[in-house]
Amino acid sequence: MIQIAQLKKQYKETVVLDVPALEISKGECFGLVGNNGAGKTTLFRIILDLVRATSGQVKINGEDVAQTEAWKSIVGAYLDEHMLLAYLTPDEYFETLRKIYGMSEADLKHHLDRFTELFNDEVLGKKKYIRDLSKGNLKKVGIAAALMGNPEVVMLDEPFENLDPSSQIRLKKLILREIENSKVTFLISSHDLNHVTEICDRIVLLEKGKVIRDLREKAEMMSELEAYFTG
Amino acid sequence: MFFTLIRLQFLKSVRSTSFAKSLITKLVMGFLALLLLTYVLGAGFLLKRILEQFSDGGDLIQILNSYLIYFFLGEFMYRYFIQKLPVVDLESLLHLPIGKKKIIHSLLVRSFFSPLSLIALLLFLPFSLEVVGTEFGWMGIITWLGSILMTSWSLHWIMLWFKQRFEDSLIGLFVVFGVLVLGAGSSYLGWFNLGELMGPVFDLALVNPMPFLALIGFFAGAYYFCFYYYVSNAYLEDLTEEEEVRFANQNIGLFSRFGLPGEMANLEWKLIIRHKKSRTYLMLAGFFLLYGLIFYKNPQYQSETGIHWIFIFVGIFITGIFMLQYSQLFLSWNSGNFDFFLSKRNGVSSLIRGKYLLFMGSSLVCFLLSVPYAFFGWQILLIHICCFFFNIGILMHLIIYFSLWKPKPMDLNKGAMFNYEGVGAAQWLMILPMFVFPYAIYVPFWFLFNEVIGILVLGVLGLAGVLAFKPLSQININRVLSNRYEISSSFRQEL
């Protein structure tokens, strides 16, 4: 699904990301962990072609992301508020996305129905602009938006951050359901080791831009990660 | 505190990703300000002679006093259009133990150091030394000039409040329009004589310090009025607290025929009506529809063919003012959500096409609204038609091309109060070079043939530009696409 080859990102002298090879296969739930400044967000941004790689390339379905745009219709992402249109209400925002993705109104309703529990009646049907929402609700809007249009790849940066505990659990359930039902490839970065080990079947640990662990065994994940982070 | 704030502001601009652009703007502005101030000073030296021409042997000072009110009305107008409001990163200061009042005081005091505060002084100082001094001595100069300065400077504070409060609303526009009518009504049409209202105050100021002292009081009052308004609004939320979601389903139906770009145009329209800054631009466009009244009837600009060269300027302005101003910040309007467009398929190109669509629409509306000017002659209508086509065919692409050089991020969502500069001189500055283009085309044809041919050539070129819309817009789209990383990272950095 996603191939990364010889990828490097450098700001002047400092190398912030250096990934010789990484392949994420279809339907995988790929977790990305690492301390602050490890390069998680940069990696996501390069995959989304928001940041230029110094060298190397990222391919989604065989397409080089920096060269084409076709991949954008199968990738949904929510990294930060810059991906929202803050001056719309959530309803208007979803409506706009509906038109962009060419979905029918029934599709949209069906899609949003899946989020009823997560939204907890605080998002839809409110006369409130996105810019006035709380951080947690902002995140919920972004996540629901990223999952629109039947994407094959969904990228979420710190999805559990700012969510209240019950929303975190609901989101976890939602992601697990998506993986099971529609074989979506998830890329999730998180500081919450419990959540990420629970939903992901593969976890990559970044340190100073380098992949230092690539864990695939559910049983060992938690202990390995704990050992690393307690240092 | 004052200097710390100035230092912070300085660092912010130096470290900004669009530093080069703002530096150049500032240099040009500084140069222009210097030039204009020199002219003002020159006018100050000539003031005595100008008045002598009018006076028919009357008392120069009295005549000047009776005209001062027009000066202040004029000052109100130019301050409205070019005075910038002070801004500060309130968010990062409010929680510190500095004290709101201190921040606001230094903010206001800083705003006072502006070339605008010098205009009255430079204009009237030579006259007061030359004429007032000889008749009334030093005391006369101090009280008379002092009164004028206090009035002018009080306007500074009043304008700070007025623009902050009303600039994006119809009320503000009505007041400004009212001032215009008041000035014009009393002088040209002779409804009443405004001069008699203010004249006596300044007459008295020559011999009596009372008006001066009273105006000092007024100045201080205006300052505190403005100050308290700012202090009481020094919160992060918007002025109107939680804004009602207005125009909730306000889509412009016509746009939806244009597919994804049309959808983007609708989005952009929502952006415009939901943010104070962009609403101001919209209001201004409405105001400038009246601009033609100053020129088309003016005897100074009459000619045999009914086409004066300045009319092109007016025509371009009237049919394109919104586009001319709004598109200077072409991508900056979307700096808060540029990643959204980047992450959608064809997102950026649709966004740009959508903006194009919106500009064309706004120009069309302005053009249609300006059709009544045909009352002044068919030539005016012809000028407007041709300028309209030139605007949407050629000029639009050019402005956008230039505005894409290091676009500056702009946070529209912060509380409007301290983040809102209003429309200032810089917005006008960028427009001026744009007028080189229509004249570069018009003037040769005017000399070779005549005015009508010149105008028609503008129109035909514009029409050709409209027909070549696809390839022309692609140039700018490609420019954005090839600079997308720089643009998106600069937008992300600075909010």
TrEMBL record, chain A:
Gene3D superfamilies: P-loop containing nucleotide triphosphate hydrolases. This is ABC-2 type transport system ATP-binding protein. The keyword Transport applies. GO terms for molecular function: ATP binding; ATP hydrolysis activity. CDD domains: ABC_DR_subfamily_A (cd03230). The keyword Protease does not apply. InterPro entries: AAA+_ATPase, ABC_transporter-like_ATP-bd, ABC_transporter-like_CS, ABC_Transporter_VariousFunc, P-loop_NTPase. Residues 2-230 form the ABC transporter domain. Keywords: ATP-binding, Nucleotide-binding, Transport.
UniProtKB/TrEMBL annotation, chain B:
This is ABC-2 type transport system permease protein. The keyword Membrane applies. It comes from Algoriphagus boseongensis. It comes from the Bacteria. The keyword Transcription does not apply. The chain crosses the membrane at residues 66-82, 103-124, 136-158, 170-192, 212-231, 280-296, 308-333, 354-375, 381-404, 425-446, 452-469. Pfam families: DUF5687. Keywords: Membrane, Transmembrane, Transmembrane helix.
